[in-house]
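To the team - magnesium ion complex, inputs and output below.
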Amino acid sequence: MPSSSTPFDAFFQSITSGREFENLKKSGDIADLSTLEKSLTSMQSDVAKANDLMKNFDTKCSPPSWSDHTSTGIQNPPKTGNPWDEEIKPAIEVQHFVKKDGSPWGFAAVAGMNDLKKELSESFIKPLKFKFLIEKLRSSDPENPTSEEEKKKHEMILKLYSEYEKFKISIPTGMLFYGPPGTGKTFITKKLAEELDCGFISKNMGEFGSSYLHQTTKNIKDFFDGAKKAAENEPILLFLDEVDSLVSARTNNVDANKSEEVSQFLQEFNELENAKNLIVIAATNRPDHLDPAILRSGRLDKKIYLGPPDEQAREELFKMYIEKAGRPSNKLDYRELAKLSHGYVSADIEGICDEVARDASRDLLELIDEAESGKLTEKELSGHVITMESIKKTILETPSSLKMVDMNIYTSWLEKIK
Ligand SMILES: Nc1ncnc2c1ncn2[C@@H]1O[C@H](COP(=O)(O)OP(=O)(O)O)[C@@H](O)[C@H]1O
Ligand SMILES: [Mg+2]
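Output:
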Protein backbone atom coordinates (compact mmCIF):
# COMPACT_ATOMS: atom_id res chain seq x y z
CA MET A 1 0.00 0.00 0.00
CA PRO A 2 1.59 3.31 -1.04
CA SER A 3 1.88 6.03 1.58
CA SER A 4 -0.91 8.64 1.60
CA SER A 5 -0.39 11.24 -1.08
CA THR A 6 -3.95 12.31 -1.97
CA PRO A 7 -7.07 12.83 0.12
CA PHE A 8 -8.46 9.66 -1.45
CA ASP A 9 -5.38 7.67 -0.42
CA ALA A 10 -5.87 8.89 3.11
CA PHE A 11 -9.57 7.97 2.97
CA PHE A 12 -8.74 4.51 1.59
CA GLN A 13 -6.13 3.93 4.23
CA SER A 14 -8.31 5.10 7.06
CA ILE A 15 -11.06 2.67 5.99
CA THR A 16 -8.91 -0.36 5.39
CA SER A 17 -6.56 0.03 8.31
CA GLY A 18 -9.17 1.03 10.91
CA ARG A 19 -10.28 -1.23 13.74
CA GLU A 20 -13.90 -1.32 12.51
CA PHE A 21 -12.82 -2.72 9.17
CA GLU A 22 -10.72 -5.38 10.92
CA ASN A 23 -13.69 -6.28 13.13
CA LEU A 24 -16.02 -6.50 10.12
CA LYS A 25 -13.52 -8.75 8.40
CA LYS A 26 -13.27 -11.00 11.43
CA SER A 27 -17.04 -11.18 11.98
CA GLY A 28 -17.69 -12.00 8.34
CA ASP A 29 -20.46 -9.38 8.31
CA ILE A 30 -19.38 -8.15 4.90
CA ALA A 31 -20.80 -10.53 2.33
CA ASP A 32 -18.12 -10.08 -0.28
CA LEU A 33 -15.12 -8.50 1.30
CA SER A 34 -12.70 -9.14 -1.55
CA THR A 35 -15.02 -7.39 -4.05
CA LEU A 36 -15.17 -4.36 -1.80
CA GLU A 37 -11.39 -4.33 -1.50
CA LYS A 38 -10.97 -4.68 -5.24
CA SER A 39 -13.32 -1.83 -6.04
CA LEU A 40 -11.62 0.44 -3.51
CA THR A 41 -8.21 -0.39 -5.01
CA SER A 42 -9.44 0.28 -8.52
CA MET A 43 -10.97 3.61 -7.43
CA GLN A 44 -7.64 4.50 -5.94
CA SER A 45 -5.76 3.78 -9.15
CA ASP A 46 -8.29 5.91 -11.07
CA VAL A 47 -7.62 8.80 -8.74
CA ALA A 48 -3.85 8.38 -9.36
CA LYS A 49 -4.51 8.47 -13.12
CA ALA A 50 -6.61 11.61 -12.82
CA ASN A 51 -3.84 13.27 -10.83
CA ASP A 52 -1.30 12.37 -13.50
CA LEU A 53 -3.56 13.66 -16.24
CA MET A 54 -3.84 17.00 -14.48
CA LYS A 55 -0.05 17.17 -14.27
CA ASN A 56 0.17 16.43 -18.00
CA PHE A 57 -2.27 19.22 -18.76
CA ASP A 58 0.10 21.64 -17.07
CA THR A 59 3.12 20.58 -19.12
CA LYS A 60 1.14 20.38 -22.37
CA CYS A 61 0.22 24.03 -22.00
CA SER A 62 3.83 25.22 -21.96
CA PRO A 63 5.02 26.96 -25.16
CA PRO A 64 6.98 24.94 -27.75
CA SER A 65 10.74 25.07 -27.45
CA TRP A 66 12.80 26.56 -30.25
CA SER A 67 15.77 24.73 -31.64
CA ASP A 68 18.21 25.03 -34.49
CA HIS A 69 17.45 21.74 -36.11
CA THR A 70 14.88 20.39 -38.48
CA SER A 71 13.18 17.25 -37.48
CA THR A 72 11.27 14.54 -39.18
CA GLY A 73 8.90 12.79 -36.83
CA ILE A 74 8.80 9.10 -37.38
CA GLN A 75 5.44 7.53 -37.88
CA ASN A 76 3.44 7.32 -34.71
CA PRO A 77 1.28 4.27 -34.11
CA PRO A 78 -2.39 4.76 -34.99
CA LYS A 79 -4.50 6.45 -32.37
CA THR A 80 -6.39 4.02 -30.24
CA GLY A 81 -9.09 6.44 -29.23
CA ASN A 82 -7.99 5.97 -25.65
CA PRO A 83 -7.19 9.39 -24.20
CA TRP A 84 -4.76 7.87 -21.66
CA ASP A 85 -2.55 6.55 -24.41
CA GLU A 86 -2.32 9.91 -26.10
CA GLU A 87 -1.52 11.87 -23.01
CA ILE A 88 1.40 9.76 -21.97
CA LYS A 89 2.91 8.52 -25.23
CA PRO A 90 6.54 9.66 -25.29
CA ALA A 91 7.32 11.60 -28.44
CA ILE A 92 10.22 10.33 -30.52
CA GLU A 93 11.88 13.01 -32.47
CA VAL A 94 14.64 12.43 -34.97
CA GLN A 95 16.73 15.57 -35.31
CA HIS A 96 18.78 16.47 -38.32
CA PHE A 97 21.33 19.17 -37.70
CA VAL A 98 21.65 21.70 -40.46
CA LYS A 99 24.83 23.51 -41.39
CA LYS A 100 24.58 27.24 -40.88
CA ASP A 101 26.78 29.64 -42.83
CA GLY A 102 29.55 30.99 -40.66
CA SER A 103 28.95 28.64 -37.71
CA PRO A 104 31.50 25.95 -37.01
CA TRP A 105 30.26 22.46 -37.86
CA GLY A 106 31.00 19.16 -36.13
CA PHE A 107 34.31 18.88 -34.32
CA ALA A 108 35.35 22.32 -35.54
CA ALA A 109 33.07 23.67 -32.81
CA VAL A 110 34.79 21.60 -30.11
CA ALA A 111 37.65 23.35 -28.34
CA GLY A 112 40.60 21.21 -27.21
CA MET A 113 40.01 17.46 -26.76
CA ASN A 114 42.43 16.88 -29.61
CA ASP A 115 43.32 13.30 -28.66
CA LEU A 116 39.67 12.37 -28.30
CA LYS A 117 38.70 14.01 -31.60
CA LYS A 118 41.54 12.19 -33.36
CA GLU A 119 40.65 8.85 -31.83
CA LEU A 120 36.95 9.21 -32.60
CA SER A 121 37.67 10.30 -36.16
CA GLU A 122 39.95 7.36 -36.88
CA SER A 123 38.25 4.53 -35.05
CA PHE A 124 34.66 5.62 -35.22
CA ILE A 125 33.63 8.35 -37.64
CA LYS A 126 35.58 7.38 -40.74
CA PRO A 127 34.82 3.64 -40.63
CA LEU A 128 31.17 4.27 -39.81
CA LYS A 129 30.68 6.83 -42.56
CA PHE A 130 32.30 4.37 -44.94
CA LYS A 131 29.91 1.64 -43.79
CA PHE A 132 26.90 3.96 -44.17
CA LEU A 133 28.05 4.92 -47.66
CA ILE A 134 28.41 1.30 -48.72
CA GLU A 135 24.98 0.43 -47.38
CA LYS A 136 23.52 3.34 -49.27
CA LEU A 137 25.22 2.25 -52.49
CA ARG A 138 24.12 -1.36 -52.03
CA SER A 139 20.54 -0.39 -51.38
CA SER A 140 20.36 2.06 -54.27
CA ASP A 141 18.29 0.97 -57.22
CA PRO A 142 20.52 -0.95 -59.67
CA GLU A 143 18.12 -0.04 -62.47
CA ASN A 144 18.59 3.60 -61.71
CA PRO A 145 20.16 5.03 -64.89
CA THR A 146 23.44 6.51 -63.69
CA SER A 147 26.22 7.50 -66.03
CA GLU A 148 28.97 5.00 -66.86
CA GLU A 149 31.33 7.23 -64.98
CA GLU A 150 29.13 7.06 -61.86
CA LYS A 151 28.84 3.28 -62.11
CA LYS A 152 32.60 2.93 -62.33
CA LYS A 153 33.03 5.16 -59.33
CA HIS A 154 30.59 3.08 -57.29
CA GLU A 155 32.37 -0.12 -58.27
CA MET A 156 35.68 1.28 -57.11
CA ILE A 157 34.19 2.38 -53.79
CA LEU A 158 32.79 -1.13 -53.26
CA LYS A 159 36.15 -2.66 -54.13
CA LEU A 160 37.88 -0.34 -51.71
CA TYR A 161 35.45 -1.46 -49.02
CA SER A 162 36.07 -5.14 -49.65
CA GLU A 163 39.80 -4.51 -49.30
CA TYR A 164 39.14 -2.69 -46.05
CA GLU A 165 36.84 -5.44 -44.78
CA LYS A 166 39.62 -8.01 -45.09
CA PHE A 167 41.26 -6.46 -42.04
CA LYS A 168 38.27 -7.40 -39.91
CA ILE A 169 38.22 -4.17 -37.99
CA SER A 170 35.38 -4.02 -35.54
CA ILE A 171 33.73 -0.64 -35.33
CA PRO A 172 32.38 0.33 -31.93
CA THR A 173 28.64 0.88 -32.01
CA GLY A 174 28.22 2.10 -28.48
CA MET A 175 30.10 4.34 -26.08
CA LEU A 176 29.80 5.64 -22.57
CA PHE A 177 30.90 9.20 -21.92
CA TYR A 178 31.52 9.80 -18.26
CA GLY A 179 32.96 12.66 -16.28
CA PRO A 180 32.06 15.66 -14.16
CA PRO A 181 29.22 18.02 -15.20
CA GLY A 182 29.97 20.70 -17.77
CA THR A 183 32.83 18.89 -19.48
CA GLY A 184 31.00 18.58 -22.80
CA LYS A 185 29.48 15.10 -22.81
CA THR A 186 26.18 16.24 -24.28
CA PHE A 187 27.85 18.83 -26.48
CA ILE A 188 30.39 16.51 -28.09
CA THR A 189 27.72 13.89 -28.77
CA LYS A 190 25.72 16.41 -30.80
CA LYS A 191 28.87 17.39 -32.66
CA LEU A 192 29.53 13.73 -33.32
CA ALA A 193 26.07 13.43 -34.89
CA GLU A 194 27.00 16.38 -37.12
CA GLU A 195 30.26 14.70 -38.11
CA LEU A 196 28.43 11.45 -38.90
CA ASP A 197 25.72 13.35 -40.71
CA CYS A 198 23.09 11.01 -39.28
CA GLY A 199 19.77 11.33 -37.50
CA PHE A 200 19.94 12.14 -33.79
CA ILE A 201 17.59 10.93 -31.08
CA SER A 202 18.26 12.25 -27.63
CA LYS A 203 16.58 11.31 -24.39
CA ASN A 204 17.32 12.28 -20.86
CA MET A 205 16.76 9.08 -18.93
CA GLY A 206 15.35 10.96 -15.97
CA GLU A 207 12.35 11.94 -18.12
CA PHE A 208 10.95 8.43 -18.31
CA GLY A 209 9.21 8.53 -14.98
CA SER A 210 5.46 8.16 -14.70
CA SER A 211 3.41 7.54 -11.64
CA TYR A 212 1.18 5.15 -13.55
CA LEU A 213 1.88 1.67 -12.44
CA HIS A 214 3.93 -0.02 -15.20
CA GLN A 215 3.60 3.01 -17.48
CA THR A 216 7.31 3.85 -17.32
CA THR A 217 8.12 0.33 -18.45
CA LYS A 218 5.82 0.81 -21.43
CA ASN A 219 7.32 4.22 -22.21
CA ILE A 220 10.79 2.67 -22.26
CA LYS A 221 9.65 -0.04 -24.65
CA ASP A 222 7.88 2.45 -26.94
CA PHE A 223 10.93 4.66 -26.98
CA PHE A 224 13.35 1.91 -27.98
CA ASP A 225 10.88 0.54 -30.55
CA GLY A 226 10.67 4.03 -32.06
CA ALA A 227 14.45 4.39 -32.18
CA LYS A 228 14.88 0.99 -33.86
CA LYS A 229 12.20 1.86 -36.39
CA ALA A 230 13.89 5.16 -37.17
CA ALA A 231 17.19 3.32 -37.73
CA GLU A 232 15.55 1.22 -40.44
CA ASN A 233 15.39 4.31 -42.62
CA GLU A 234 18.72 5.98 -41.91
CA PRO A 235 21.72 5.79 -39.57
CA ILE A 236 20.78 7.05 -36.11
CA LEU A 237 22.80 8.20 -33.16
CA LEU A 238 20.79 7.38 -30.07
CA PHE A 239 21.85 9.48 -27.11
CA LEU A 240 20.87 8.31 -23.62
CA ASP A 241 21.77 11.26 -21.43
CA GLU A 242 22.15 10.98 -17.66
CA VAL A 243 21.72 7.25 -17.96
CA ASP A 244 22.43 6.77 -14.25
CA SER A 245 19.10 8.38 -13.38
CA LEU A 246 17.27 5.34 -14.70
CA VAL A 247 19.79 2.56 -14.56
CA SER A 248 21.14 3.11 -11.10
CA ALA A 249 22.28 0.00 -9.34
CA ARG A 250 19.20 -2.00 -8.48
CA THR A 251 20.58 -2.79 -5.07
CA ASN A 252 19.95 0.86 -4.17
CA ASN A 253 16.28 0.47 -4.96
CA VAL A 254 13.77 -1.07 -2.68
CA ASP A 255 11.02 -0.19 -5.12
CA ALA A 256 9.81 -3.14 -7.17
CA ASN A 257 8.53 -0.90 -9.98
CA LYS A 258 11.93 0.68 -10.36
CA SER A 259 13.51 -2.71 -10.60
CA GLU A 260 11.02 -3.63 -13.33
CA GLU A 261 11.93 -0.46 -15.23
CA VAL A 262 15.63 -1.19 -15.00
CA SER A 263 15.06 -4.73 -16.26
CA GLN A 264 12.98 -3.41 -19.14
CA PHE A 265 15.67 -0.89 -20.00
CA LEU A 266 18.40 -3.54 -19.95
CA GLN A 267 16.34 -5.92 -22.06
CA GLU A 268 15.69 -3.21 -24.67
CA PHE A 269 19.29 -2.14 -24.49
CA ASN A 270 20.55 -5.66 -25.16
CA GLU A 271 18.15 -6.04 -28.06
CA LEU A 272 19.72 -3.02 -29.73
CA GLU A 273 22.55 -5.40 -30.61
CA ASN A 274 20.58 -6.44 -33.67
CA ALA A 275 19.52 -2.96 -34.74
CA LYS A 276 21.38 -2.06 -37.87
CA ASN A 277 22.76 1.45 -38.21
CA LEU A 278 22.05 2.43 -34.64
CA ILE A 279 24.87 3.97 -32.66
CA VAL A 280 24.30 4.32 -28.93
CA ILE A 281 26.00 6.86 -26.73
CA ALA A 282 25.19 6.99 -23.05
CA ALA A 283 26.42 9.76 -20.77
CA THR A 284 26.70 10.06 -17.02
CA ASN A 285 28.17 12.24 -14.30
CA ARG A 286 27.84 9.33 -11.88
CA PRO A 287 29.34 6.19 -13.43
CA ASP A 288 29.57 4.73 -9.92
CA HIS A 289 25.75 4.68 -9.77
CA LEU A 290 25.35 2.62 -12.91
CA ASP A 291 23.90 -0.84 -12.78
CA PRO A 292 26.83 -3.18 -13.63
CA ALA A 293 24.57 -5.02 -16.07
CA ILE A 294 24.61 -2.10 -18.50
CA LEU A 295 28.40 -2.29 -18.59
CA ARG A 296 28.39 -6.06 -19.02
CA SER A 297 25.94 -5.87 -21.91
CA GLY A 298 28.78 -5.22 -24.35
CA ARG A 299 26.77 -2.53 -26.10
CA LEU A 300 28.89 0.28 -24.64
CA ASP A 301 32.18 -1.12 -25.81
CA LYS A 302 34.12 2.08 -25.34
CA LYS A 303 34.20 4.05 -22.12
CA ILE A 304 35.53 7.54 -22.51
CA TYR A 305 36.38 9.94 -19.71
CA LEU A 306 35.72 13.60 -20.36
CA GLY A 307 37.57 15.65 -17.81
CA PRO A 308 38.20 19.35 -17.20
CA PRO A 309 39.97 21.01 -20.15
CA ASP A 310 43.76 21.33 -20.03
CA GLU A 311 45.53 24.67 -20.41
CA GLN A 312 45.61 24.58 -24.18
CA ALA A 313 41.93 23.67 -24.36
CA ARG A 314 41.05 26.51 -22.00
CA GLU A 315 42.94 28.93 -24.23
CA GLU A 316 40.94 27.65 -27.20
CA LEU A 317 37.69 27.92 -25.25
CA PHE A 318 38.28 31.60 -24.43
CA LYS A 319 39.21 32.28 -28.06
CA MET A 320 36.16 30.41 -29.28
CA TYR A 321 33.68 32.22 -27.06
CA ILE A 322 35.18 35.71 -27.53
CA GLU A 323 37.29 36.13 -30.66
CA LYS A 324 35.72 33.52 -32.92
CA ALA A 325 32.25 34.45 -31.66
CA GLY A 326 33.02 37.96 -32.97
CA ARG A 327 32.57 39.66 -29.58
CA PRO A 328 34.31 43.07 -29.46
CA SER A 329 37.37 43.04 -27.22
CA ASN A 330 40.70 44.74 -26.54
CA LYS A 331 43.79 42.71 -27.24
CA LEU A 332 43.57 39.75 -24.88
CA ASP A 333 46.31 37.54 -23.49
CA TYR A 334 44.59 34.19 -23.99
CA ARG A 335 47.54 32.26 -22.61
CA GLU A 336 47.22 34.10 -19.31
CA LEU A 337 43.45 33.56 -19.21
CA ALA A 338 44.05 29.84 -19.63
CA LYS A 339 46.47 29.88 -16.69
CA LEU A 340 44.05 31.84 -14.51
CA SER A 341 41.17 29.45 -15.19
CA HIS A 342 42.86 26.28 -13.99
CA GLY A 343 40.23 23.89 -12.57
CA TYR A 344 37.32 25.37 -14.52
CA VAL A 345 35.28 23.17 -16.88
CA SER A 346 34.26 24.12 -20.42
CA ALA A 347 30.76 25.16 -19.36
CA ASP A 348 32.26 27.49 -16.69
CA ILE A 349 34.45 29.20 -19.28
CA GLU A 350 31.54 29.59 -21.67
CA GLY A 351 29.57 31.11 -18.77
CA ILE A 352 32.40 33.51 -17.88
CA CYS A 353 32.58 34.71 -21.50
CA ASP A 354 28.81 35.24 -21.58
CA GLU A 355 29.03 37.23 -18.37
CA VAL A 356 31.83 39.57 -19.54
CA ALA A 357 30.01 40.10 -22.84
CA ARG A 358 26.86 41.04 -20.95
CA ASP A 359 28.86 43.47 -18.77
CA ALA A 360 30.56 45.11 -21.74
CA SER A 361 27.30 45.54 -23.62
CA ARG A 362 25.32 46.92 -20.69
CA ASP A 363 26.22 50.57 -21.42
CA LEU A 364 24.86 50.18 -24.96
CA LEU A 365 21.44 49.41 -23.52
CA GLU A 366 21.58 52.67 -21.60
CA LEU A 367 21.84 54.50 -24.91
CA ILE A 368 18.53 53.29 -26.33
CA ASP A 369 16.60 56.32 -25.07
CA GLU A 370 19.22 58.65 -26.52
CA ALA A 371 19.08 56.85 -29.88
CA GLU A 372 15.27 57.08 -29.90
CA SER A 373 15.36 60.77 -29.20
CA GLY A 374 17.85 61.23 -32.06
CA LYS A 375 20.69 62.48 -29.84
CA LEU A 376 23.06 59.50 -30.12
CA THR A 377 26.46 60.20 -31.69
CA GLU A 378 28.88 57.79 -33.43
CA LYS A 379 31.45 58.54 -30.75
CA GLU A 380 29.25 57.09 -28.02
CA LEU A 381 29.09 53.79 -29.90
CA SER A 382 32.79 53.04 -29.62
CA GLY A 383 34.79 51.81 -26.66
CA HIS A 384 32.37 49.11 -25.50
CA VAL A 385 34.68 46.12 -25.43
CA ILE A 386 35.60 43.11 -23.36
CA THR A 387 38.86 43.74 -21.52
CA MET A 388 41.46 41.58 -19.84
CA GLU A 389 40.57 43.19 -16.50
CA SER A 390 36.87 42.40 -16.85
CA ILE A 391 37.59 38.74 -17.60
CA LYS A 392 40.09 38.41 -14.73
CA LYS A 393 37.55 39.94 -12.36
CA THR A 394 34.79 37.59 -13.54
CA ILE A 395 37.04 34.54 -13.17
CA LEU A 396 37.75 35.56 -9.58
CA GLU A 397 34.04 36.06 -8.90
CA THR A 398 32.96 32.76 -10.50
CA PRO A 399 33.56 29.58 -8.54
CA SER A 400 34.49 26.51 -10.59
CA SER A 401 31.60 24.10 -10.84
CA LEU A 402 34.03 21.33 -9.88
CA LYS A 403 34.18 22.72 -6.36
CA MET A 404 31.24 20.59 -5.34
CA VAL A 405 32.36 17.48 -7.23
CA ASP A 406 34.28 14.60 -5.69
CA MET A 407 36.76 13.79 -8.46
CA ASN A 408 37.70 10.51 -6.74
CA ILE A 409 34.45 9.08 -8.12
CA TYR A 410 35.98 8.89 -11.56
CA THR A 411 39.42 7.52 -10.73
CA SER A 412 38.14 4.88 -8.36
CA TRP A 413 35.38 3.81 -10.75
CA LEU A 414 37.91 3.36 -13.53
CA GLU A 415 40.07 1.21 -11.23
CA LYS A 416 37.01 -0.89 -10.44
CA ILE A 417 35.99 -1.65 -14.02
CA LYS A 418 39.51 -2.25 -15.38
N1 LIG B 1 35.04 21.20 -25.86
C1 LIG B 1 34.15 22.19 -25.87
N2 LIG B 1 34.24 23.20 -26.76
C2 LIG B 1 33.36 24.18 -26.78
N3 LIG B 1 32.34 24.31 -25.93
C3 LIG B 1 32.18 23.33 -25.01
C4 LIG B 1 33.07 22.23 -24.93
N4 LIG B 1 32.67 21.43 -23.93
C5 LIG B 1 31.57 21.99 -23.40
N5 LIG B 1 31.28 23.15 -24.04
C6 LIG B 1 30.19 24.08 -23.71
O1 LIG B 1 29.77 23.81 -22.39
C7 LIG B 1 28.37 23.57 -22.36
C8 LIG B 1 28.07 22.50 -21.36
O2 LIG B 1 28.55 21.27 -21.79
P1 LIG B 1 27.68 19.94 -21.69
O3 LIG B 1 27.91 19.14 -22.91
O4 LIG B 1 26.28 20.27 -21.38
O5 LIG B 1 28.36 19.25 -20.43
P2 LIG B 1 27.98 17.86 -19.78
O6 LIG B 1 27.00 17.17 -20.66
O7 LIG B 1 29.29 17.12 -19.69
O8 LIG B 1 27.45 18.20 -18.43
C9 LIG B 1 28.00 23.18 -23.78
O9 LIG B 1 26.71 23.60 -24.11
C10 LIG B 1 29.01 23.85 -24.65
O10 LIG B 1 28.52 25.08 -25.07
MG1 LIG C 1 25.01 16.69 -20.19
